[in-house]
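Lab notebook, bench 4. The sequencing result for the construct came back, and we need a structural model before the next group meeting so we can plan mutations. Quick request posted to the team channel:

Model the 3D structure of this chain.
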Amino acid sequence: MALKIAAVGDNCMDVYENLGKAYPGGNPVNVAVYFTRMGGEASYTGVVGTDGYGALLKKAVAEKGVDITRIRTVEGSTAITHVELIDGERVMGEYEEGVLADFTLTDEDVEYLGSQALVVSALWGNCQQYFPAIREKGAKIAYDAATRPDDAAAKEAMPFVNYLFFSTEADTPALREQMQRLYGQGPELITATLGEAGSLVYDGKDFTPHGITSCPVVDTMGAGDSYIAGFLFGLLNREPISACMQRGADSAAVTIGYFGAW
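Done. Here's the predicted structure in token form:
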């Protein structure tokens, strides 16, 4: 049986003004796409607008093999993130939330997500209020808190999150103290992605560091989401933590070798 995740929350079009290009993205969408790239199965629950970007995003996600039957199209604009690419590094600009500002889950959505083995969401997805019901139905939850694990939304989510991810810059004593504190709020595994410095996992007892997979850098967009997808693939496959981290590093190396998240 294929490994499967159910992604839910935000999506957007990453618009590169200086390149005149736009690429579909958004954390849960990206993780779903990368997970299918490794041979797994994924669905995505979310909402897009009635503009051209909405149709483009749905088509692109479906072409990557992700189940899009739970994407709703509502009147309005699809979310947009304005991006600049400077020496291979993405510089995030203005974010236009569009129809995601009013995104909610239906009872049917919650029932479906609760029936899945693993639900994947993120800080910008505005779904944390549904986590208690999803967990109560038996699903586990992976959550990306971006660079803000102490944000109000992340704090609300934390007691119901099994696998927490967030990003920072370096493995320091302060980071390890933070990870221990966050562990006490509920998650069973905490992963900090550290860019070029690799990643660090805390399981409540031990810290496990891991390096990157070296590769040429074209565009770092989606690197963290790729890591999450690889890590979760290994986790669902019941691999050791170090092997999950290697899967994450390898997945990220593929993504940063081309423009756009995918």
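The mean pLDDT is 92.
Will bring this to the meeting.
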